[in-house]
Every structure is written in C-alpha cells, then in structure tokens.
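Translate sequence into structure tokens.
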Amino acid sequence: VPTIAQDRAGFLWIATGDGLVRFDGYRFRPQERESPDPAARNLGWIRALLAGRDGRLWIGTESDGLAVYDPASETVTACSDERQDRDLVLPTIRALAEDAGGGIWVGSEGGGLQRFDPGSGHFARYRHSGQPGDLPDNRVQALLVDRQGTLWVGTAGGGVNRFDRGRETFTRFTRSETDAATLSNDHILCISEGSGGALWIGTTSGLNRFDRV
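Result follows.
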C-alpha cells in the first residue's frame, strides 16, 4: 500500500499493487474503470492519490498516467491531452498536489513535473533542460502547495525546489558540503508543512526542518 487518502465524503481510498480500493468503514470495495475488456478495468499499481477540494479523487498510476474518480458518476476517467505529443504520456506518477486554481500538479519518475488543467484538459510540462532556473531533476518524488500557494518540488537528486509561477522558474535548495545548515541529502522523499509555516522534509538521510525567511 503506497498511500491512502480520505475524500470529502469521508471514504478512505487505498492505493495497492492491484488497483484502487475504497473503504466505507465496514467493507472494502475495488474501484475499477469502465471497459469492455475485463483485463483493462483494473488500474494496476497506484503510487499516488489526491483528494480534490471538489470531491473528486485524483489517481497517479504506475504506467497509465493520471486518472480521476468522479463520485457523482462513480466512474474513473483517464486524463490525457490528445492534441499534445505522445512523448507527454506520463511514466510512473509519484506525487500529486492541487493549487488554488484547481490545477493538478503531477510529479513523475523521469517525466519531470506537469500541471493538468481540468477545465481545458491540457498539460503544461516542466523538465530539466540545463538552462538557468529549470527543474534540476526529472525524477519528482514529492509535491506540496503550501498555505501561501507556493509549490514546492522534491526530487530524487536535485533537492527541494520552490516554483515561481510568474517567472516559471525554480529556486533550488540543496545539500552543501561546507554548510551544515543545509539539507542532509538531495534525495527527497516527502514534504509537509507544519502549523508554524516551517517545511518538514524527509530525505534518504533523515528528517529536515526548513525555516523560510
């Protein structure tokens, strides 16, 4: 079980290696997508879940990209943009976050960072390019939209990054050999915001507290 989420109605959603399961307090019920092919109904490995503010559940899969469960219709729908290139098909999704505008940020293993706009159905993509201010690592492991609306991106080798939406650039915070007050490791596993506004960052070398000035 990689992750669990609770939706607005109070249901628990459990990501497993064999699809998505809903727990209503009494019983477990597999949630599948509609397909005439029984083998295609199972969502397979699920790595990330996000309970949206509107009641929908966003689902990050191992190999089928992003999907969404709508409680109104009780159906699962794949999120894809057919007008964009096929190379935008997402690899393994590791992290999901929702911003104030309802956009869904998607972090994937090797596919970088993307923002899905549910209204238009379009994906915007951010990848490592070698240019100043770009995403330093395409392996995105953790995402957080803090109370101020700022997006924080944790990568597998490029530390923690703060995204400037206006300029569309990333500011990196990484480990330094000469400064003990930096990250213990640039391999980020999770990011959470404390009640006082500090960020708590889990790395492969332990827990870090990041106090923003």
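Note: Residues 44 and 105 are 21 Å apart (CA to CA).
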